[in-house]
Amino acid sequence: MKTGLQRREENIRFLKSVSMLRDLPSDKLAKVADVLEIDFFHEGEFIIREGCTGDTFFLINKGEVKVTQTVVGHNEPQEIRKLKRGDIFGEKALLGEDRRTASCIAQPPGVECLTIDRESFNQLIGDINELRNKDY
Ligand code: 6JR
């Protein structure tokens, strides 16, 4: 059984490995580590569905996520990229877009994410320029 302190230290180590968060001041990093929740998704599960509203920001701790988007002229949403450990997603609907811009689907054998809700996102990381200006 892990103690709260071990979990926090593990989270801080992970957060420092996420390039976009690396430069956060350590007091903010510690706060982020305190509010993180862990969430598991089975293979094939939609973590995010394009067009829905959303209040959650995701960091991938384990596994792979496929991103798909509706493209004019295609009946099926098209794969636009795959995301892996240390990558983030779900920032756009928290930064002004009112709807999810793409679908994010857990790949085999499943995905473990760390999540941050809208309120903590706004307080702690919503002003990171690299995140705000992320240009796909
Ligand atoms: N584009 C998440 C990953 C992309 C990508 C292009 C776009 C938008 P969300 O998918 O945040 O939920 O984190 O909207 O809260 O190439 N993602 N690759 N989004 N949007 C999203 C991102 C992640 C879905 C992408 C994404 C666009 C293109 C034109 C508006 C207009």
Rg calc: 15 Å
Strand ordering within the main sheet: 1-8-3-6
First and last CA, distance = 40 Å
Which small compounds were modeled alongside the protein? ligand 6JR
- Low-confidence runs: none
| SS-based class | alpha+beta
The tally of helices reads 4
Helix content: 25-40%
Number of strands: 8
**Approximate shape:** globular
Assembly category? single chain
Main sheet attributes: strand count, strand direction, barrel closure = 4 strands, antiparallel
Average pLDDT value? 94
Strand content: 25-35%
The helix/strand series, from N terminus to C terminus, equals HHEEEEEEEEHH
Structure description:
There is one protein chain. With 136 residues, this protein is α+β, with helices and mostly antiparallel strands. Helices cover 26% and strands 29% of the residues. It is built from 4 helices and 8 strands. The strands form 2 sheets. It has a 4-stranded antiparallel beta sheet. Strands 2-7-4-5 form a 4-stranded antiparallel beta sheet, with no helix packed on it. A hairpin with an 8-residue loop joins strand 4 and strand 5. Helix 1 packs across helix 2. The longest helix has 14 residues, at 4-17. It starts with a helix and ends with a helix. The model has no long low-confidence stretch (mean pLDDT 94). It binds ligand 6JR. Ligand 6JR is lined by residues 48, 54, 67, 80-81, 89-93, 97, 100-102, 104, 136.
Structure summarized in a few sentences:
By secondary structure, the protein is α+β, with helices and mostly antiparallel strands.
